[in-house]
Hints:
Layout: E1 3-6, E2 14-19, H1 31-39, E3 49-53, E4 59-65, H2 79-82, E5 86-90, H3 97-107, E6 122-125, H4 132-150, H5 158-171, E7 175-180, H6 183-186, H7 190-196, E8 204-210, E9 217-222, E10 224-228, H8 237-240, H9 248-262, E11 268-278, E12 290-292, E13 298-300, H10 308-320, E14 326-331, H11 335-341, E15 347-350, H12 353-365, E16 371-372, E17 390-391, H13 400-409, E18 418-422, E19 426-427, E20 437-438, H14 443-454
Parallel strand pairs: 1-6, 2-4, 2-5, 5-6, 9-11, 9-14, 10-11, 13-17, 14-18, 15-16
Antiparallel strand pairs: 3-4, 7-8, 8-11, 12-13, 15-18, 19-20
Helix pairs in contact: 3-4, 4-9, 7-10, 9-14, 12-14
Amino acid sequence: MPLTLLGEKTNTSLPVYLVSGGALEESGATSAACAWARANGFTGAEGAVLTIPGNEGALSGAFFGLGGGEPSPLVYGKLARKLPAGDWHFANPPKAPQLCVLALLLGGYAFTRYGAKATPDIRFAAPDGADVEAARRLAEGTFLARDLINTPANDMGPDALEEAARALAARHAAEISVTTGEALVENNFPMIYAVGRAGLVAPRLIDMRWGAESAPKVTLVGKGVCFDTGGLDIKPASSMLLMKKDMGGAANVLGLASMVMAGKLPVRLRVLIPAVENSISAGAFRPGDILKSRKGLTIEIGNTDAEGRLVLADALALADEEAPDLLIDMATLTGAARVALGPDVPPFYARDEELAAALSAASVQTADPLWRLPLWRPYAEKLRSKVADINNVTKDGFAGSVTAALFLERFVEKAARWAHFDIFGWSPDEKPTCPQGGEAQGIRAIEAVLRQRYGA
Length: 456
């Protein structure tokens, strides 16, 4: 990982003095260091870093500001990018050591595949009370999701997404099978095929299984639209600029699967990813087409740019057939979710009140924002079609995230519990734990719920 966590400080380790409310002396630093901070205008603002000079031009430590109120538990991620390279430790302990070490790891991330620079080579002694291995598992899963999202579509088509899933499966001795191209029709995945058939690379359904067959079944479904032109209802150019991230749901469930398998949770894990490109050609599906789904429901296509729910529907129907104890789907599904809650807070939908409460609580505990929105059933009428069982969009455009969730709900009947996450998969601004770019959302909170529910 870009930042290395150590079990204890080294002989060359330098102290980081945490400053709350501008109280420099309470940080434990020397009076000379505090005078240096005042002379340089350091007030302890949240996330601010000031290095402290030592003898003969060397460093003797650094101040880190926590602000005047309750700091973000992940603010420590800034240290991974603002400190000079070398060995460091906390002079005074942080209040939430587990979130602190996770923030340090996450803050060290950089996407370097195409030439961007890595973050500084920092080794940091973990504070007492932190589970370093648990933090590393969460960081590795997060980095996997970020790497996949950040990779452009010319290097992350359905075939490359399959290879990423195969690599993860091989790492954890999981089983994997893939249904590709015309075989999708033969095996009754008609909507996955219809959405992806116009792409240069054949559409496919990735199916990964791991864990004892007798364990509780947990199934993850991720939208793997590797690029979304909008199809024949083509997006404007400005709306296509980030469409490499439209496989963010697939990236997130692979990241979550990495966390589950690395943590050896006693579950029967299944990961389903419909991997397609929503492209344009003479063979593209059209507005007004009526598609038959795996479940047997007929779908009138009101808009080809609402393709994610179509491929998810076939995958959800397959997942539902074995009645898992928990079924989760994740997708970069609607702009309406961003209008409602912005890019940082993904909405989720759940029928089970206990599950919803657990997710909301875990969101706070893990500093992984989520917000529950309602499955408001009267809105289901807006998806009515005069010629088919259901339309894939509404006519008025209101409550777009809610109606998308209601569409997906039609394909889940047997699963004991189901939750849908309408994620953005992208950080438009640099944050303490994430540069601008692809981001994992909700998977740390979900992992915490899985560990609470199924952990040994």
